[in-house]
Amino acid sequence: xxxxxxxxxxxxxxxxxxxxxxxxxxxxxxxxxxxxxxxxxxxxxxxxxxxxxxxxxxxxxxxxxxxxxxxxxxxxxxxxxxxxxxxxxxxxxxxxxxxxxxxxxxxxxxxxxxxxxxxxxxxxxxxxxxxxxxxxxxxxxxxxxxxxxxxxxxxxxxxxxxxxxxxxxxxxxxxxxxxxxxxxxxxxxxxxxxxxxxxxxxxxxxxxxxxxxxxxxxxxxxxxxxxxxxxxxxxxxxxxxxxxxxxxxxxxxxxxxxxxxxxxxxxxxxxxxxxxxxxxxxxxxxxxxxxxxxxxxxxxxxxxxxxxxxxxxxxxxxxxxxxxxxxxxxxxxxxxxxxxxxxxxxxxxxxxxxxxxxxxxxxxxxxxxxxxxxxxxxxxxxxxxxxxxxxxxxxxxxxxxxxxxxxxxxxxxxxxxxxxxxxxxxxxxxxxx
Length: 433
Hints:
- This protein has 433 residues and is α/β, with parallel strands linked by helices.
- It has helices at residues 43-56, 76-89, 108-116, 129-132, 145-157, 176-185, 229-246, 254-263, 310-314, 317-328, 332-335, 340-343, 366-388, 396-411; strands at residues 7-10, 61-66, 94-101, 119-124, 162-168, 190-195, 199-201, 220-222, 252-253, 280-283, 288-290, 301-304, 353-354, 360-362.
- A hairpin with a 5-residue loop joins strand 13 and strand 14.
- Helix 1 (43-56) crosses helix 2.
- The model has no long low-confidence stretch (mean pLDDT 94).
């Protein structure tokens, strides 16, 4: 069936960025367009994309997403024009805009544009200074932390809604609570934790890229900055343990919210955990449309909107097969997994490992996701039951505290301090009762 609701990540400045984040998979996409000298989506391409995207959505609310590279390099006036184009074609529909930025160029002028037009800002920040600056550096290899925090303060000062996007990599993966508490202390009410997983080809591929797709069968190795599977699982579990005891309903973590969707029987709102994908594409500065933001490779190019309507590209046979392959290519090992309902093999980009019996297509992060989904299962079951009974999921915090207390009493030795907090030894206090 044709897609009547889909999402596109727009890259109006392509891969051009003012930072040089060592793990960024998109910077080298510049090699795909060797003849380009001016990296900006031309007015005629922008106009057609906005018009066709609005027309193709079978909903009264239409959500645009603007990324890069770094979109602030285009300047405030570019996005003022963009908003006017949206108004011209809205036709009574409500227009929403999400804007992903590294934050270093944000000022009051940008904040005024965002506030006036209700932009939701995604701010990239990887934790406290020493963790953020591990890989997120500028073109001179210098720290960006102070500039990003200054940009975040600008958003807060002007009342602009924002969330944080934190990549989880080898450098910050062993410091989950430092990252989580830092984000809370700095006003992030909604957090995304994105695992960094890349493979590096030993030789440049024919398309000029070093960071390769999961289907690449040449000599390659996982990059030294990629998160390790169990390291990622521990990162998520540690943050979850703090969140589920203190912060439910106060702070929102994307993977926790999406997990609850799946435990209530809903299909995940996040594409990486859906049975099939293909409804989230990417459009480059020139109008080229690709199957996914993580599959911007020549073989995944669907066409160009200046030559074919956006809706036709979205519903092309090529894109349909791409989306279905997420499910059909799943190894048997995954099909019999007890947490398949939650994971569904996660993102195809990460499926370059082999199963214990040698079948290809296993997700590199499998061990980490298994660890996480098994760990959260009792809490998710409790919250799902509370929702079914029309009670608040935040009740899980009291339930978790009761479980912790029970475990403490069960494991207390006679000469240990009593878990009740009396200061007496267990044998002289609650052990008597």
